[in-house]
DNA sequence: CTGGATCCGAAATGATACTG
DNA sequence: CAGTATCATTTCGGATCCAG
């Protein structure tokens, strides 16, 4: 049933295209993208690569808390989706340079919007989270 | 594999784990938000609630593929962060209405930007993902 | 220097039964 | 109707070893 809209226009200043296809067979691409960039390190890698191309060890040292395995997995995932370009230089020792593809570069725009929102509202979220986690001792 | 539990007491999976068990390293709020909305169902719930308030079963039937457990956990997480408001009506039978808070409503703006990007570039991503997964005879 | 392979624990998710 | 409790499965993430 796609006609769930009973003539009630959403009074929102943001026009959501229609990210809910209401089809259990097909999942919306929004969820798909969120599942891709919603992991622990993907966004950090994208942001770093958005500044300039990095080599493997540059990324590894730039994030510092990521393991080699997760860095490789993250880059492979981004590369598979066409967001990151991998170029191997047959030097000695070998070096691999990672960079954002044009497609990956366009992701920086909506990602920065979300980042701005997160930074702006992080105190409010932290406050609400902390308040709801505590038992109501005062009232 | 087999049940080789080393006497681990059954953890209560319905209780939300402590957000910060100890003096964990402080990570950027962007990653924090991505970890929150990057799960499997949170965005769908936010979008549905962005259209209009929904009751529990409305959300459950609107998504259809989510289990009661995950719907409850998703709503609890959003409620804890102050993005979703929960109002109980002491009727018979009881009904609970969920709606976006003003803070949660502001999330729709950057989320719609990301949704638009995802819908726009979903074909390109799917094509790249499919091409790289195949043993294609490229170059 | 890059990164694949393997093992392990933790967390997320799903299915189901039960309850006020 | 709106959850909660429990269990099983999958996925995620880290540590380590090993290879080109």
Automatic annotation (TrEMBL), chains A, B:
Q: Does the keyword Mitochondrion apply?
A: no
What GO molecular function annotation could you give as one example from this UniProt entry? DNA binding
Which region ranges are annotated with the description Disordered?
1-25
What SUPFAM superfamilies does UniProt report for this protein, alphabetically? Winged helix' DNA-binding domain
Outline the extent of the HTH hxlR-type domain: 28-126
**Which UniProt keywords are listed?**
DNA-binding, Transcription, Transcription regulation
Matching entries from PANTHER family are given as: TRANSCRIPTIONAL REGULATOR, MARR FAMILY, TRANSCRIPTIONAL REGULATORY PROTEIN
The protein here is known as DNA-binding HxlR family transcriptional regulator
Organism lineage: Bacteria, Bacillati, Actinomycetota, Actinomycetes, Streptosporangiales
